[in-house]
Amino acid sequence: MFAEEYELQEARSFARKSLEKTMTTGSRGPDDVTFTSFRKVIEHELDFPWLTRMEHLEYRMWIEEKDMNALWMGKASFHRLSCSYNDKLMQLAIQNYGFRQLVYKRELEELKRWSRDNNLSDMGFGREKTTYCYFATAAAIGVSLPYDSHVRLILAKSAILITVADDFFDMEGSLNELKSLADAVKRWDGKGLSGHSKTIFGALDGLVSELAEKHLQQQGRDITNDLKDIWYETFASWLTEATWSKSGRTPSMEEYLETGMISIAAHTLVLTASCFLNPSLPNYKFRPAQYDTVTKLLMLVPRLLNDIQSYQKEIADGKQNSVILYLRENPEADIEDSVAYVRELIATKEKELLEHALMDGFSDLPRPCKQLHLFCMKAFQMFFHSSNRYDSNTEMIDDVQKAFYIPLKLQTPKPLIKLMLNQLPLPLHHHSRSKNDYQSVANCFNIYGKRSLAAPRVRWPVSRNFGYKNNIVMGVPPKIRFSFF
Ligand SMILES: [Mg+2]
Question: How far are the Cα atoms of 282, 357, 385 from residue 361, in angstroms, in the given order?
Fold first, then answer.
């Protein structure tokens, strides 16, 4: 949904209210198997906005819920779309999911090895997020397999390094150590570093060399200096935040956001990986002064999402955050007002980002680069939309297992006739359905007959459960036919 699409917004809230109502009134009792399956799908729709959904897990849900692969035409009827290739398409989807899991498992093992070899998996402080970083990359990014394996690995390696270095600046290093490390990144010379600083710089230097060499081979252009510059920009922002925190200085909101948009490092990930897409990022869009608007929006939205989920911890740690700063700059506001203000800002800016990423004419970036910006925002939304899943050691386990390890759980398909009979409205003044009720509806569709599955109009019995005063006339599109697989 883009900004100023008020009708769409209204339609969305109408649909949402209707689904919520269905959740409270839709079930016909504990034996209502059909509704139980539908409940899962409706809950998913209500609980997870599109921006928080990971493509890979979405595919899984729709394959596993394939019996719900039906159009719910009204409160009392189903139509399942059918085509002669349905079974084959389903088989293909199942095999594709299994193939993806194999590739993802192999890449995750490679990443774990890389983290271990670079001593990043056992720093003794902060977060070890190799699996989470790779999960977000693999599950969010709809790039083709296995050709874009290197793009996934670049994103995940950069994200692992960012997590470790950010924690070092936030919680471990002394101000002198942090200044030395940022200075080493500026000079791109690790001489004189020791301990964790040496480990972080060594891993960064190795990554930048690897990527620059790959890019030179792939596209014939040396991007070493561009990579060094964007990493220095990121390290400098972490140093600024650490200096504020250690000196007790409170920046203005404007100052904070200017730095915070860089320190969240979403652009560090996406611009680096965009150099390896085809067509790739134009060289000049890699330079801070010339970041595209969609890049700037990507830098802002994840920062604000992260702030909403971390302000309590940051108040305790004496750190700054947009939620805390709004409160400070607006003494009449309380913390709820402050969170609401930041949420509103996120909602506005994410609509702008969608427009820039999906519409022509807003951005000069090639389409794959714009899409990567969008996927990255989705990954941040997935981690921070309703809680801080990135910092939780338990909230992501189920999704990670489903994405990489647990085979698809396929149900035995239920014949549609059973679904329909389960869903029939109760006749007036009766608590149970009679055989005649089933028969009369079955006759309408000629279910027990030979053919003619598409009756043009069907008059359904009035159901007091659903509160209709008049009979409901359902139109049946003539080309849709029922299938019994
Ligand atoms: Mg930080």
Answer: 17, 10, 29
Cα distance between residue 347 and residue 325, in whole Å: 19
pTM of the model: 0.80
Distance 237 CA to ligand 1 centre (A): 9
- For ligand 1, the distance from its centroid to the CA atom of residue 311, given in whole angstroms, is 12
Burial of 341 (0-12, 13-18, 19+ CB in 10 A): middle
What is the enclosing helix (H) or strand (E) of 72? strand 70-74
Least confident of 143-147, 286-290, 396-400, 475-479: 475-479
Structural domains of the chain, with CATH: 6-82+410-475 (no CATH), 101-320+351-405 (1.10.600.10)
Determine the Cα–Cα distance for residues 159 and 274; give it in Å rounded to an integer: 14
Ligand 1 center to 170 CA (angstroms): 5
Distance 150 CA to ligand 1 centre (A): 27
Greatest mean pLDDT among 51-60, 183-192, 314-323: 183-192
Q: How many A from CA of 282 to the centre of ligand 1?
A: 29
Cα distances (angstroms) measured from residue 263 to each of 166, 304, 317, 420: 8, 12, 17, 55
Q: Measured in angstroms, how far is the CA atom of residue 431 from the centroid of ligand 1?
A: 61
